[in-house]
Amino acid sequence: MTTEILGVIATYGITLLLAWPLSRYIVKVFRGERTWSDFMAPLERLFFKISGINPKEEMNWKEHLKALLTINLVWFVYAFFALFFQDKLPLNPDGNPGQSADLAFNTAISFVVNCNLQHYSGETGVTYFTQLFVLAFLQFVSAATGIAALIVVFKAMKEKTTTKLGNFWDIFLKTITRILLPISIVIALIFVFNGMPASYAGKEAIVTMQGDTVNVSHGPVAGFVAIKHLGTNGGGWFGANSAHPLENPNYVTWMTEMVAQVLIPIAMVFALGMFIQRKKFAMVIFGIMTIGMICLLIPSMQQEMAGNPAIAHMGIQQATGAMEGKEVRFGAAATGYWSTVTTIISTGSVCGWHDSTMPMTGMMQLLGMMLNCFYGGCGVGILNYYIFIIIAVFISGLMVGRTPEFMGHKLEAREVKIAAIITLLSPFLILAGTALSSWVLSHHPDANWAVKPSAWLNNPGYHGFSEMLYEYTSANANNGSGFEGLGDGNVFWNVSTGFILILGRFLPIIGPVAIAGLMASKKYIPESAGTLKTDSLTFGAMTFAVIVILTALSYFPALALGPIAEYFSL
Amino acid sequence: MKKYLWPSVKLTLLLVVLLGGLYPLFIAGVAKMAPGKGDGIKVTHNGRVVGYENIAQKFSDDKYFQPRPSTVDYNAAGSGGSNKAAGNPDYLKTVQERIDSFMVHNPDVKKENIPAELVTASASGLDPHLTPAAAYVQVPRVAKLRGIPADKLKQLIDANTQGPLMGLFGLSTVNVLKLNIALDDMK
């Protein structure tokens, strides 16, 4: 019991210890200062030369977004066709079939947008070629996309008045060559020395002790799992994700995967303070995010360690907690911690099934994704938080009756409108999606799809509703975890979540970049006694209140129908 | 948009080669020096490979220690859990059946001493471990069927128990496959 909690505390402590130096390094890279990784420069120059890119050409915010969206479109087209025709491509030792059009659509989108909602199982639904050349590739570049968008916002916040915000290609490629690739290599090497597979061999037949023949899936797992976590992607090599004993063999790999997924999100918060030279501003944000995480974490760990009341009722001891859908080598506390972190930072990998966690833990997971800004995914977490800051500045401005200012620029109607649209988008997509699926389920239970709506839900009652709510929440947050009992491998879910994935990814990137770009082009107003201090604790509390109130108002009815009702019925 | 299309296509192709091709090849190369040579760690017994250290296998014979229930029937060609909710009536029926079945096979054990992990399915369906408590509770059955004193079996479990990481972090675990191999090697 104590060692379980110590393990969690140590893991978080290691994350902070590593995030600090990493943030200094990140700032150096994007300021263009000398670093140890300068040996990558010739490779970068070569890539730019072949691609016909001038990395020194300064872009304004619109050009940044055009470049970002164009390359994302290219990735989507490439991924769709590769997945659709994967049975005809090399590196398919297990002879897996090509994906159907709707599944390839969903899978391609899902990996392009850093979500990794997987409506297939890794062992049977993809090949080594698509796992590596499509999915692992997208795990790198989608994370780099989020970070590149954030760096543009950093630059816009830093400058007094400018339209020149650096070069998208330069920021994007350096994110990969200087940050994601080197750290992934280190992580992958830790994995292979702890027994994670890395070779290209196909399934291996084993005759067990009692004489059964079992085919064991493996493959080049280690490199994939490294970037899966470092890039807050979360898509598993195997169907069981990081609960699979070859994808997460022991407690050392558990800690490594856990640190890896939250490392960059925390480092980016520290980097924000250093980059724009407002350390206090960033530390207040870090404090609010950490308090937010703890509010979700404590109930989760407590509920999981206390066990399932229905099983306690049968007269069974649950010294190890609620063990359905968990692994002994991790235990209930560690799995509870993972479930919180993976939902607040949009990784969506799991080391135990969320569908089988206690109702209140499930609610914390849902809230983590609905908020989506406590640390948050690579780059996009702070972009989501940035929107809440804009709303908080606006409301504070109304309260004191002055034109609101942020970072020395006036915040006017256009920026606030954009922020309001982005804030309203999430509840709209999540709740409209859940309403639509509930309607289909109750009015067309026998629709002729691969999985009939009447067979969608793996659990009856309130929890069944939560399964649908979770799927759309996860899609909108680009999280990728699921209440996996849901029968989501059919055209309805593939298409409906596919569209929500696109909107839930790109609008929350376009919005903050546009706001920051518009603000940076305005006249700089020096700070005066009347300026709202955005780096104060009061303003931090104000932002927190905005986040809590908006979330509670948007989602309370849906949560009451799902996890809250389930909790009281258990 | 047009201005960015060709640079995007070319940069994508280069990165596909670097990240999808060279990166995993490099990891696979280094893995040749790691335990299991990058194929996963296998266990041999009497000169024969009997399984992967970390993949649970079926032990239906009562003479062996049994791993946790699996929803994929210990078939490692796939993986997965039940995804059943805490209060699902069908699920609770399954748990009750597991309890009843355990009581039939282990008549010397009182119900309140059955650890929850023995009647709940693991996440991967391939959980290779038991907690020490879940191994101890099977001792009377194995002792009776094999005619080995219970004390000796408890010592065997302790010898095969891996403590928390550095004695501080995580849980104690018992690898079922290794325990059963050690069990067969007794006498």
From TrEMBL, chain A:
Location within or outside the cell: Cell membrane
A Pfam family of this chain: KdpA
Record's bilayer topology term: Multi-pass membrane protein
UniProt-recorded Gene Ontology molecular function terms: P-type potassium transmembrane transporter activity; potassium ion binding
GO cellular component: plasma membrane
Major subcellular location class: membrane
Keyword annotations from UniProtKB, A to Z: Cell membrane, Ion transport, Membrane, Potassium, Potassium transport, Transmembrane, Transmembrane helix, Transport
Transmembrane segments annotated in the record for this chain: 6-27, 65-85, 132-154, 175-193, 258-276, 281-299, 374-398, 418-441, 491-518, 539-565
NCBIfam families: kdpA
Subunit composition and interactions: The system is composed of three essential subunits: KdpA, KdpB and KdpC.
PANTHER family xrefs: POTASSIUM-TRANSPORTING ATPASE A CHAIN (PTHR30607), POTASSIUM-TRANSPORTING ATPASE POTASSIUM-BINDING SUBUNIT (PTHR30607:SF2)
Purpose of the protein: Part of the high-affinity ATP-driven potassium transport (or Kdp) system, which catalyzes the hydrolysis of ATP coupled with the electrogenic transport of potassium into the cytoplasm. This subunit binds the extracellular potassium ions and delivers the ions to the membrane domain of KdpB through an intramembrane tunnel.
Annotated family: Belongs to the KdpA family.
UniProt name for this protein: Potassium-transporting ATPase potassium-binding subunit
Organism whose genome encodes this protein: Chitinophaga ginsengisegetis
Gene label: kdpA
From TrEMBL, chain B:
Pfam families membership: KdpC (PF02669)
Membrane-topology annotation of the record: Single-pass membrane protein
GO molecular function, one term: P-type potassium transmembrane transporter activity
InterPro entries: KdpC
Top-level taxonomic group: Bacteria
GO cellular component: plasma membrane
Keywords from the named record: ATP-binding, Cell membrane, Ion transport, Membrane, Nucleotide-binding, Potassium, Potassium transport, Transmembrane, Transmembrane helix, Transport
Subcellular location per the Swiss-Prot or TrEMBL entry: Cell membrane
Entry function: Part of the high-affinity ATP-driven potassium transport (or Kdp) system, which catalyzes the hydrolysis of ATP coupled with the electrogenic transport of potassium into the cytoplasm. This subunit acts as a catalytic chaperone that increases the ATP-binding affinity of the ATP-hydrolyzing subunit KdpB by the formation of a transient KdpB/KdpC/ATP ternary complex.
Quaternary structure and partners: The system is composed of three essential subunits: KdpA, KdpB and KdpC.
Family: Belongs to the KdpC family.
Protein name as catalogued: Potassium-transporting ATPase KdpC subunit
